[in-house]
Specification:
alpha/beta, five-stranded antiparallel sheet, DNA polymerase, domain 1, Rossmann fold, Dna Ligase, domain 1, damaged DNA binding, 42% helix, five-stranded mixed sheet
């Protein structure tokens, strides 16, 4: 059937129209249709509120796009169906934007649909900044680049990579601290992301829901770890949930130790224990303090609610029981939790409210500490405590119900559950049966009946996970009652090992393991701080070694400040680094997260416990170089201080310590001797007797000369002198040889000593300046005595071992030994300055070839040689030549 003439004519006409002309004609027709639609609207239903506004809608919105189109046209605005250029629209309406759109629209007015609705409702155009999805102009404060571009590579985003999913499933290798939503811009010195702001009447840019009453968003700028490590660490801790939990827990335990340190430990285990825990604490607090204007109909008991920083790869910190019934679990990614929602159900994501969480925790512990029936209130976490009853006469159920009512009243609606048992393990199991919002007491003497154990599986026991269940041979489906009657202590120890097997056997019979018993009997010893640590596993991206050194300085300052707060010093420091695993993507699914990593660590003892920032920073830098992890492969840094002791346990280094007489603490030192004579009042003639004048005629100089001096040959004195630096040794030996008195012999000795020193100084100056020839035998390297030629040889050697083609593994060991012998000969021959020059030459050559060295193994090997082998030689000899020259020498290698 032939085509109609009309259709053929239209086709030929369209073929003659250019691409730009087609869209121009389309835009004209759409505006004509909008004017016709406005003319057809009833009188009184239109206005000029949006006059002068050209609106473009990006993505899915609530109200939908068609409703917003009618609203804009009805009230005098111009609606753009497509965006020919960013300057064509005065306002861009969006619920949320992907990272690339945030970069593209960073200089535009991107508002939520609420701005249109509120402006029409109030009859005037409201200020757009409070409704901004991007938070105003904060995103245009810095040039927009990425972290990759800062390191010299092409700027990319994880969501744009062809082999990287934009929304990844739950990733077991991704760290959970902090659960920060994906930053959208890495702008040179900052990382920008959106966080909830319940006080601003706008729509969250990262809200998972499309509801119009979603929380607002504002832009927040985070410094990068490379540009400003101190600000990065501060911002990291401000937004890290697990950091705050750790800080609150440590503070609660320190308060307990201070309050009960004078009390003696218990001699027998307590008879009744209460385990009290909030129900989905973070989610409850976030729900109680939500913006009720935006969530007026949210039902906490029926609607699924979760708490996290944002959406996508943010970790779920807490969720209510309605969400748990649908498969949501703590630690799950928000995107994975959203996919578990059935059709028609929306998971409501609420932001953290750390101030409200801390206030609720304080009220919780205030109620428990105010109960006179408790001997101890042992803090487990900010929302969990173990309470030890004073006796058995109390009505435990009634006491628990009263505590739950008081907690709910004092916290404004937070519910708590209570488990009661004769041991801590029974109280924990009873708490499982009490949740949510209930009380359960595990009865029975000495152990609960089988009906109690039938309600639990093997995984309900504390400390038992999937690996232990696999060793038990498919006991995952068995109840604890079955396991109690089918196993013995030897069989459990054979399958699980002596320690875990004994712990499981004790739990199956209602008994606590040794650690739990120790916490109940002597909690102060358990709660006393044993270590201080900092662990950063998000945002770690470095390009150079100095950037790593600066970050380690900040970490050292942080842990040193924590030591100062708890009055401790550390005797051991451990550096743990997370290196990108082989085959893992450079940018993991979680933006700036760790991804799959290999962990390496190394520890060092400090000798004398210390809390000095300089000491800790020096050890950390040495450990970093010993681990030899390429800086661009770093994804996580952790610093751990152990073997803590109190400040009072570390006394000054006294001669008794050097002579092997043990440590003398500061409290054991004698009181300072006063040099001021006591004031006396003359009584009668005794105050002016001849004895008084005889005492005054005694010469102080003769008294000091009369004091016997120890001989330098004394074994104890010799051992003491050997422990001193060489410069102090000479001064003490000269002092022991005899003081210079007022006699002629003393003056002659002084004059001879001054002449000898002047001659030595002239000889040294002649040697250094080259005037008068050299006083020392030449030191040769590979048969070459000229130091300039030696330097050229060493520089060529370094260049050959860092060729840049990736074929070298660094210098050969025999070459290194020859070089070290040359450095040692320079030091022994009073040429420490030359040894320092050649070491600095190697360091400078490595710094110049850092970016061009193709194989990082060669560069790491050279750094190891400098730090671990050359620097010790220089440090051992730093005072040898300095004794005569009296110069300050610092190795800048």
């Amino acid at each position: 059937m032939p085509d109609s003439p009309g259709k053929d004519s239209d086709t030929r006409e369209d073929d003659n129209v250019s691409h730009g002309g087609y869209f121009h004609n389309k835009r004209v027709k759409q505006r004509a249709q909008d004017r016709a639609l406005q003319a057809q609207m009833p009188a009184g239903s239109t206005s000029r509120v949006l006059s002068g506004c050209t609106v473009y809608v990006n993505g899915h919105t609530d109200p939908p796009r068609l409703a917003l189109h009618d609203l804009v046209v009805r009230h005098g605005g111009v609606f753009l169906h497509y965006l020919s250029s960013k300057g064509a629209a005065t306002h861009i309406v969006a619920e949320h934007l992907p990272p690339r759109k945030r970069v593209e629209f960073r200089n535009c007015k991107v508002v939520s649909p609420r701005w249109l609705l509120d402006s029409v409702q109030q009859g005037r155009q409201l200020p757009w900044a409070p409704y901004s999805v991007l938070g105003g102009s904060a995103l245009s404060a810095f040039p927009v680049t990425s972290v990759a571009s800062a390191e010299g590579s092409t700027p990319t985003l994880a969501a744009e990579s062809s082999n990287t999913p934009t929304v990844a499933a739950e990733h077991t290798n991704t760290p959970t601290v902090p659960s920060v939503s994906a930053p959208t811009v890495a702008a040179g010195n900052s990382i920008t992301r959106t966080v909830a702001s319940p006080t601003v009447p706008a729509t969250r840019a990262d809200a998972p829901s499309t509801r119009a009453d979603a929380p607002a968003a504002r832009a927040e700028t985070f410094p990068t770890v490379a540009s400003d490590p101190e600000a990065f660490l501060r911002s990291y801790f401000e937004h890290s949930r697990l950091h705050k939990l750790s800080e609150w827990k440590a503070r609660l335990r320190q308060e307990f130790v201070r309050a009960h340190s004078a009390e003696p430990p218990l001699t027998a285990p307590p008879t009744r224990v209460l385990h009290i825990d909030f129900d989905c604490f973070f989610a409850t607090v976030a729900f109680l303090h939500r913006d009720k204007r935006r969530f007026p109909s949210l039902d906490f008991a029926r609607d699924p609610v979760a708490v996290c920083h944002g959406r996508g790869s943010s970790d779920v910190a807490s969720c209510n029981y309605a969400a748990r019934a649908l498969g949501v679990r703590n630690g799950m990614w928000a995107a994975s939790a959203q996919r578990r929602m059935p059709a028609g159900t929306t998971l409501t994501l609420l932001p953290y409210d750390f101030a409200a969480i801390e206030a609720a925790s304080a009220a919780f512990y205030a109620v428990l500490r105010g109960c006179p029936d408790f001997r101890w209130v042992l803090p487990v976490s900010i929302d969990e405590a173990v309470c030890v009853l004073r006796g058995e006469g109390e009505d435990e159920i009634a006491l628990a119900q009263q505590l739950r009512r008081e907690i709910r009243e004092r916290t404004g609606g937070c519910t708590a559950s209570v488990g009661i048992g004769a041991s801590l393990v029974l109280a924990r199991l009873a708490l499982r049966l009490a949740k949510p919002d209930g009380v359960y007491a595990a009865g029975g003497d000495p152990s609960p009946p089988d009906s109690f154990w039938e309600q639990f599986g093997v995984r309900d026991l504390p400390g038992v996970g999937g690996a232990a269940v696999a060793k038990l041979g498919g006991a995952d489906t068995a109840t604890l009652s079955t396991l109690r009657h089918s196993t013995t202590l030897p069989s459990l120890q054979t399958q699980l090992g002596n320690k875990l097997g004994g712990k499981v056997w004790a739990a199956l019979h209602g008994q606590d393991d040794r650690e739990s018993q120790r916490m109940l009997l002597d909690p102060c010893a358990v709660f006393d701080r044993k270590s201080v640590a900092v662990d950063i596993n998000w945002g770690i991206r470095f390009a150079t070694v100095p950037q790593v050194d600066a970050f380690l300085d900040v970490c050292a300052g942080y842990v040193a400040n924590k030591l100062r707060e708890c009055g401790k010093r550390a005797g051991n420091v451990t550096l743990k680094l997370h290196r990108r695993a082989a085959g893992a993507p450079v940018e993991p699914p979680k933006y700036l997260g760790m991804g799959r990593c290999d962990a390496v660590s190394q520890a060092a003892g400090l000798g004398v416990p210390s809390g000095d920032v300089g000491v800790l920073a020096t050890e950390l830098k040495a450990l970093f170089r010993a681990l030899a992890v390429p800086v661009r492969e770093l994804r996580g840094v952790a610093v751990h201080l152990a073997k803590l002791c109190g400040d009072q346990e570390v006394g000054p280094r006294t001669p008794g310590q050097w002579l092997g007489k043990g440590r003398v603490g500061a409290g054991a030192l004698p009181a300072p001797v006063s040099t001021t004579p006591k004031a006396t009042t003359p009584k009668g003639s005794a105050g002016t007797s001849a004895e008084r004048y005889r005492r005054l005629r005694v010469s102080p100089v003769k008294d000091r000369a009369a004091v016997p001096r120890p001989a330098a040959s004394d074994p104890g004195v010799a051992a003491f002198l050997e422990a001193l630096p060489s410069q102090l040794q000479r001064e003490v030996r000269r002092d022991l040889a005899g003081a210079i008195g007022e006699s002629g012999v003393g003056r002659g000795r002084l004059r001879a000593e001054m002449q000898r020193r002047a001659e030595a100084a002239r000889a040294v100056n002649a040697h250094l300046t080259g005037s008068g020839g050299t006083l020392l035998a030449p030191v040769r390297f590979q048969g070459e005595a000229s130091f300039k030629r030696v330097c050229r040889t060493v520089e060529a050697w370094v260049a050959a071992t860092c060729s840049g083609n990736g074929a070298s593994d660094g210098p050969h060991e025999r070459d290194v030994l020859v070089f070290l012998r040359y450095v040692e000969k320079l030091c022994v021959g009073d040429r420490v300055h030359l040894a320092l020059r050649v070491a600095s030459l190697v360091s400078t050559a490595l710094a110049l070839r850092e970016t061009s060295c193709g194989d990082t193994r060669a560069y790491a090997e050279w750094e190891h040689i400098l730090v671990r082998r050359v620097l010790p030689v220089l440090n051992r000899n730093r005072l040898t030549f300095q004794t005569e020259r009296k110069l300050d020498v610092e190795w800048e290698v």
